[in-house]
């Protein structure tokens, strides 16, 4: 059996974290969760992840700022980790805005968990 893929969920809503964790754990992914972009960078400094689900609107450091910081990391593996934006304010951004920030994809809120899983799989099976 292959080692389960590690996903970091960056989201300030405990409800969304718990729902997302439950859906992803059902698929045997290994999940870690943090509440803001600063915690993402701290977690990433000590661990490798196969994918990051990044809320765009978080306190302390938002998802766009955090993604830009990740893309500038010296470790090429960490700097190129796939990052999927999770946002309720997708109308404020275009896919081009997300791409310029270094995001690979996005899923809008309210989350459609079938679509979220399909998006996660798409980036983990590359």
Automatic annotation (TrEMBL):
- Stretches assigned to the Response regulatory domain: 6-124
Q: Which UniProt keywords apply?
A: Kinase, Phosphoprotein, Transferase, Two-component regulatory system
A GO molecular function held by the record:
kinase activity
SUPFAM superfamilies named in the record: CheY-like
In its UniProt record, which GO terms are filed under biological process?
A: phosphorelay signal transduction system
Q: Tell me, what's a Pfam family for it?
A: Response_reg
Q: Which SMART domains match?
A: REC
Report the residues modified as 4-aspartylphosphate: 55
The record's section on PROSITE patterns has:
RESPONSE_REGULATORY
Protein's name in the database: Hisitidine kinase
Question: Source species, please?
Answer: Rhodonellum psychrophilum GCM71 = DSM 17998
């Amino acid at each position: 059996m292959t080692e389960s893929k590690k996903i970091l969920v960056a989201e300030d809503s405990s409800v969304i974290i718990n729902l997302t964790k439950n859906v992803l754990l059902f698929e045997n992914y290994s999940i870690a969760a943090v509440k803001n972009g600063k915690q993402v960078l701290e977690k990433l400094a000590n661990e490798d992840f196969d994918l990051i689900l990044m809320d765009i609107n978080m306190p302390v450091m938002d998802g766009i700022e955090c993604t830009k910081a990740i893309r500038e990391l010296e470790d090429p593996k960490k700097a190129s980790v796939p990052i999927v934006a999770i946002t309720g304010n997708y109308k404020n951004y275009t896919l081009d805005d997300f791409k310029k920030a270094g995001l690979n994809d996005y899923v809008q809120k309210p989350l459609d968990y079938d679509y979220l899983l399909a998006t996660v799989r798409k980036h983990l099976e590359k």
